[in-house]
Amino acid sequence: MKREEMIEMIYHILKDKLELPTMTSFHEEARLNEDLYMDSVMILELILYIELDFGIKVPDEMLVPKDFQTVHTVVEFIKRQQCEAHGGIK
Predict the structure, then answer these.
(1) Cα–Cα separations (whole angstroms), residue 25 to 43, 49, 67, 75, 85
(2) For the CA atoms of 11, 12, 13, 18, what is the dihedral angle to 10 degrees?
(3) Do 46 and 74 contact (CB within 8 A), yes or no?
């Protein structure tokens, strides 16, 4: 899956499923807490939808705050999880 498609999927999760009211601030470098005003519960919901929509399993030990700072870091996290799920093949 291309980076742009991942960003679009994240956008739709935030807009349609989490009904985030701050979507005008959405862009690849938008910070989840400071720019999009997401709290920890919303970030956990985002992780749940990532698991469902991207078809990946995210083990609890893989959850570190640095991966959920910006839209960009979330995309990088998803890419790593998909790569690991496919035996390291990108």
Answers:
(1) 16, 20, 19, 17, 32
(2) 100
(3) yes
Distance CA 69, CA 53 (A): 20
Q: What is the pTM of this model?
A: 0.90
Report residue 15 as tokens.
């807009």
Task: Tell me how far apart the alpha carbons of residues 90 and 77 are, in angstroms, rounded to a whole number.
Answer: 13
Give the list of residues 6+ apart from residue 25 with CB closer than 8 angstroms, or none.
35, 36
**In residues, how long is the chain?**
90
Convert the pLDDT of each residue in 24-35 to its tens digit: 999 999 999 999
Rounded-to-integer distance, Cα 30 and Cα 90, Å: 25
What is the percentage of the chain residues whose pLDDT exceeds 70? 96
Stretch (H or E) spanning 6? helix 3-12
